[in-house]
Specification:
Strand order of the largest sheet: 15-16-17-18-20-19
Helix content: 25-40%
Number of strands: 23
CATH class of the largest domain: Alpha Beta
Cofactor: Mg(2+)
Family: Belongs to the RNase E/G family. RNase G subfamily.
Protein name: Ribonuclease G
Organism: Colwellia echini
Subcellular location: Cytoplasm
């Protein structure tokens, strides 16, 4: 399998596309305006100690001084005898002292960033704990055999100076992948210590990796043929990064100077747009309908124009088999997680059902994200789950529709017309008016004056008053006003 990364960098946004065998499989997007500083490590200076608040203000070269509470000074935690209270802040830090801290909460409004001295550095599967000596496993990994397996792999990486925690994403990870992560984190921490010795204060000792760096880190161990970057500056920064931390990826890195936008390669831009549609066409003529809700994602398969060449059962089976490949790709591309319900076209042949499930499982096995696949339910639905790792593509690129408020549908012009007629009757009973003016969208006004003109005339006779209709181009189809004159 050939794989390639396309990295599109602009001052405001970075996008990364993973292409496998010429087909877009994953899209990662980061917008600079939404990027925080949580995870950054600084060598800060204590500028004020507040005994009454048991806290200190720390200068980390941001607009506002950062806040460090005594309870967050983990490496020097001192408890009073027979008490749960933290020791006096003045016994832990003093003004003018330089201290290594990590941001745990971004600045908000008038408040500065929240800090801790309990430093950790995370990678895809592991978390490095510089002042620990043991291997820990995320509590969310519940299978005891898997916990034992991970502990045996990670345990030897720990020593007297550092320990590791296996993150939830590490469940099922192989020994080589975990080894790559541990080696990467060790290199990062050595770099942090060197910068601390130089008393680097104007810049962070460690900055949580931006998207392009993070993607390279996470794809270590995967056979990447080429990594194309369309920004010369970003390319140079990535080259330094790979040379220092991931030297095996350096030969794959190249600058893309082409006039053609990099995301036009392999039709990546078009594929992203298609991934925002509900309907996905199959090559056979069938199609999928993908609906994403807060509770779950549902996928419905239909034969559409595909009539096949044999009997109906074979046509259905062929469509379902084709759909399994598209489903697996769309889940990765859209980054859909949580509960996923797949409504395949009904099959009566048990062998066909088994082969469809096997096909879906094989297609999903290419996904780095953990998933679980269950068989057909009594209702003929396939239930599966896929781990949530980041926001879905739709949530990143789209917002709630201001017209339908996220329903996905608008009331028809006919429905709005009947609402208007009922509203006129209601207002007439409650208030004394000489006539009424109805303001509504052009489509509703046209429908009211043409298709529903007889009903409008009947209401005029019923209330004994004139009703005028005026189109308001700025109104949406569901919006209207009934004005008394």
């Amino acid at each position: 399998m050939s794989a390639e990364l396309l990295i599109n960098v602009t001052p405001s946004e970075t996008r990364v596309a993973l292409v496998e065998n010429g087909s877009l499989q994953e899209v990662h997007i980061q917008r600079e305006a939404k990027r925080g500083i949580v995870g950054n490590i600084y060598l800060g200076k204590i500028i004020r100690v507040l005994p009454g608040m048991q806290a200190a203000f720390v200068d980390i070269k941001l607009d506002k001084a950062a806040f460090l509470h005594a309870s967050d000074i983990k490496s020097k935690l001192i408890l009073k005898e027979d008490s749960d209270q933290v020791a006096d802040i003045r016994s832990l830090v003093h003004e003018g002292q330089y201290i290594m801290v990590q941001v745990v909460k971004d600045p908000l409004g008038t408040k500065g960033a929240r800090l801790t001295t309990d430093i950790t550095v995370a990678s895809r599967y592991l978390v490095l704990m510089p002042h620990a000596t043991h291997a820990g496993i995320s509590l969310r990994i519940e299978d005891e055999q898997e916990r034992d397996r991970l502990k045996k792999i990670v345990g030897p990486y720990c020593d007297e100076e550092q320990g590791f925690i296996v993150r939830t994403a590490g469940e099922g990870a192989g020994e080589i992948e975990l080894q790559h992560d541990a080696e990467f984190l060790r290199r990062v921490w050595q770099k942090v210590l060197k910068r601390k010795q130089r008393k680097q204060t104007k810049l962070p000792l460690y900055q949580d990796l931006s998207l392009s760096f993070r993607v390279l880190r996470d794809f270590v161990g995967i056979d990447i043929e080429r990594i194309r970057v369309d920004s010369k500056l970003a390319y140079q920064e990535l080259a330094v990064f790979t040379e220092e931390f991931i030297p095996e990826l350096t030969p794959s890195l190249e600058y893309y100077p082409g006039e053609r936008p990099i995301f036009d390669l392999f039709s990546a831009e078009q594929e992203i747009q298609r991934a925002l549609h509900r309907k996905i066409e199959l090559k056979s003529g069938g199609y999928l309908i993908i609906d994403q809700t807060e509770a779950m994602t549902t996928i419905d398969i239909n034969t559409g124009a595909f009539v096949g060449h044999r009997n109906l059962e074979d046509t259905i089976f062929s469509t379902n088999i084709e759909a399994t490949q598209v489903i697996a790709r769309q889940l990765r591309l859209r980054n859909l997680g949580g509960i996923i319900i797949v409504d395949f076209i009904d099959m009566h042949n048990d062998d066909h059902k088994r082969r469809v499930l096997n096909s879906l499982d094989m297609a999903m096995s290419k996904d780095k994200v953990k998933y679980s696949l269950h068989g057909f339910s009594a209702l003929g639905l396939v239930e599966m789950t896929r781990q949530r790792t980041r926001e879905s593509l739709e949530h990143i690129l789209c917002g709630e529709c201001p017209l339908c408020s996220g329903r996905g549908h608008l009331k028809t012009a006919e429905t709005v017309c009947f609402e208007i007629l009922r509203e006129i009757v209601r207002v007439n009973r409650a208030h004394d008016a000489d006539k009424f003016i109805v303001y509504a969208s052009t489509a509703v006004c046209d429908f009211l004056q043409e298709d529903e003109c007889h009903n409008l005339a009947e209401v005029e006779v019923f209330i004994g008053k004139l009703i005028k209709v005026k189109a308001e181009p700025m109104y949406n189809q569901e919006q209207f006003d009934v004005v008394m004159m």
